[in-house]
């Protein structure tokens, strides 16, 4: 499906004036697209949708990855701390998808921020994933723990992550990493950076849409990735029942989950839906490669162009959902500050370090 999208523009240009195969009402002016990928500062193209494997348990994550790759996903988002990289790697190897057609993301855990610990941690991830390089390596959290400790804060590296970043830059130059990114901007961008952050992965969903961060990121050329795009596990049912979401799904003949994922991509973010249920893995991806009727487009045309074009929400429906999402107090779900025993909130702007 990803390859099919790349051919879309030439297909559209070849559509006759009266539609494909002469069918009236099937004209390219009715067809609109969203990006299948974004271009990073390195020139690399990162697919706009990934399978997230957070909380995907052993014995089920491999099947989810194989289903995803068969469906058309080419972007897998994982992390060392998830504890499932070996199974993910085996599933990728078994898929037969060439490595140069895949985008693999992993993350540096808090205990490995010391420069001397970073490459061994990365090598462990590379071995488990059975790959020679990562397309993207993120600093998982802007918090450093002392190596071998149970969440004992390394105040020096937390206050100044520049040594960590410099080591990551070195690994980019060695070819083990293609791009590096973050999970929250903190005490980094004031330093002279050889390789700037390519991506900032944050919680983004209907309940926590972060419009100010999105605006700032676009203005500063930093791509956002949305984790928990449908909300937390407890929020998903509520998110899929939002009246505006249900209205969009009904009008465009897509599912509520597909409506929300399309909204994320249309906001200009990478979206990381996660599931180990095969039907949902497929649904989340196909929502973006699903042709819809734009007010009067003929059904036979939709069938002809099925999966060739990425869904775009009409402006009025997109604006309606955006307004609904940004009109209520934000609800952040993922905040490990208390569990880590920190005496400050990791999301506060000023830390008492």
Automatic annotation (TrEMBL):
InterPro entries in UniProt? AKR, Aldo/ket_reductase_CS, NAD(P)_OxRdtase_dom_sf, NADP_OxRdtase_dom
Per its UniProt record, what Pfam families does this chain match?
A: Aldo_ket_red (PF00248)
Q: Where is the NADP-dependent oxidoreductase domain?
A: 50-287
- Can you say what this protein is called? NADP-dependent oxidoreductase domain-containing protein
Question: Organism, per UniProt?
Answer: Somion occarium
């Amino acid at each position: 499906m990803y390859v099919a999208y790349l051919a879309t523009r030439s297909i559209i240009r070849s559509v006759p004036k009266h539609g494909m195969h002469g069918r009236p009402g099937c004209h390219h002016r009715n067809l609109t697209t969203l990006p299948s990928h974004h271009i990073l500062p390195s020139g690399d193209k990162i697919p706009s949708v990934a399978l997230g494997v957070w909380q995907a348990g052993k014995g089920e994550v491999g099947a989810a990855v194989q289903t995803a790759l068969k469906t058309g996903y080419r972007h897998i988002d994982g992390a060392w701390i998830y504890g499932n990289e070996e199974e993910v790697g085996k599933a990728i190897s078994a898929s037969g998808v060439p490595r140069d057609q895949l985008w693999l993301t992993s993350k540096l855990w808090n205990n490995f921020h010391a420069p001397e610990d970073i490459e061994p941690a990365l090598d462990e991830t590379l071995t488990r994933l059975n790959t020679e390089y990562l397309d993207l390596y993120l600093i998982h959290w802007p918090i450093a723990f002392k190596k071998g400790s149970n969440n004992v804060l390394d105040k020096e590296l937390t206050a100044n992550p520049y040594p960590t970043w410099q080591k990551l830059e070195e690994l980019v130059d060695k070819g083990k990493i293609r791009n590096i990114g973050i999970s929250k901007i903190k005490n980094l961008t004031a330093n002279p950076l050889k390789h700037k952050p390519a991506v900032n992965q944050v919680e983004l969903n209907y309940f926590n849409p972060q419009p100010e961060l999105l605006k700032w990121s676009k203005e500063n050329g930093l791509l956002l990735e949305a984790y928990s795009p449908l909300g937390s596990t407890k929020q998903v049912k509520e998110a899929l029942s939002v009246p505006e979401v249900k209205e969009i799904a009904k009008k465009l003949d897509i599912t509520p989950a597909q409506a929300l994922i399309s909204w994320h991509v249309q906001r200009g973010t990478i979206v990381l839906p996660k599931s180990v249920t095969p039907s949902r893995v497929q649904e989340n991806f196909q929502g973006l490669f699903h042709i819809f009727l734009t007010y009067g487009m003929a059904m036979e045309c939709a069938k002809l162009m099925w999966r060739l074009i990425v869904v775009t929400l009409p402006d009025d429906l997109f604006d309606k959902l955006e307004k609904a999402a940004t009109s209520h107090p934000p609800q952040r779900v993922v905040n490990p500050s208390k569990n880590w025993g920190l005496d400050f909130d990791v999301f506060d702007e000023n830390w008492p370090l």
